[in-house]
Design a protein that fits this description.
263 residues; alpha/beta; seven-stranded mixed β-sheet; 7 strands; 25% strand
Length: 263
């Protein structure tokens, strides 16, 4: 199974329960790229468009690339009111796109599927001189220690499916990931690199938490019977701990520019 396509099976649940990003993050990308109605942006891996609307609201044109056909159609319908929005249903690595055409290329929680040595040179080629690449992701973190302990006990019994121990405090991991991205952007020719870390919280009911987990690629790759049993155990654990699961999310942003043409 191509794990990139597991999200394609559940677009409505994915759209309803996956995290959004902070207003400050969008504001920083718009500032850094000077995005406005004269600009053209490319989104890599739009999914169901959790990171799309604030950019569309600048008046810019957006072309999105999405490998999942159901996700692509979901986003077409979701943003049908925007005449300058379009979706290409294709793998980004294979999509034929014109070079030096985009003022902003961005990817939210999708670029990790693409090998940097393939994706970053292609992004650089697609950008106009001075154009910006924004690499965005979210690192969900447990907000409650007791909930973390209960959930980890369950996942430890499913180690055969590749589930490992998740640290309770993942902030050091977030900083290491930011440094790795800065280094990758510099290696492949981006300049003026900036990054930032943002925080947010969201609270889900026990049933919504289990449904959210069911949209994850590693869970969807499980045989149905085992996945159903795991999800029920997760829901039961959240109910035992008060009935609500709170995430303390960390949103990662790393941006760089294509060098401007020399005068």
């Amino acid at each position: 199974m191509d794990l990139r396509l597991t999200f394609n099976e559940v677009p409505a649940e994915y759209d309803r329960l996956r995290p959004r990003y902070t207003a400050e993050l969008f504001a920083d990308v718009i500032r850094f790229s000077a995005l406005d109605a004269t600009k053209h942006a490319l989104e890599i891996g739009i999914g169901t468009g959790q990171a799309t609307l604030p950019f569309l609201q600048t008046g810019c044109a957006i072309t999105a690339v999405e490998i999942g056909d159901r996700l692509a159609q979901f986003s077409r319908e979701k943003f049908a009111a925007f005449s300058r929005f379009s979706v290409i249903n294709q793998d980004f690595e294979l999509a034929e796109l014109e070079g030096n055409s985009y003022d902003l290329v961005y990817s939210a929680s999708a670029f990790h599927w693409i090998a940097p040595e393939v994706g970053l040179p292609k992004v650089l080629r697609l950008l106009k001189p001075g154009g910006v690449f924004a690499w965005i992701s979210v690192q969900p973190t447990y907000a409650q220690q007791h909930m973390h302990t209960e959930i980890q006990k369950i996942y430890e019994t499913y180690g055969d499916y590749g589930f490992g121990t998740i640290p309770f405090d993942r902030l050091p991991e977030a900083h290491a990931k930011q440094q790795e991205r800065r280094s990758a952007l510099a290696k492949y020719g981006f300049v003026g690199i900036e990054d930032n870390l943002y925080r947010g919280t969201r609270t889900l009911s026990a049933s919504d938490y289990a449904t959210l987990q069911s949209t994850a690629n590693d869970h969807r790759a499980m045989p149905l019977a085992e996945r159903t049993a795991l999800l029920q155990k997760l829901e039961d654990a959240v109910n035992r701990c008060g009935g609500e699961f709170t995430f303390a999310d960390k949103y990662l942003l790393c941006m760089g520019k294509k060098p401007a043409k020399k005068s």
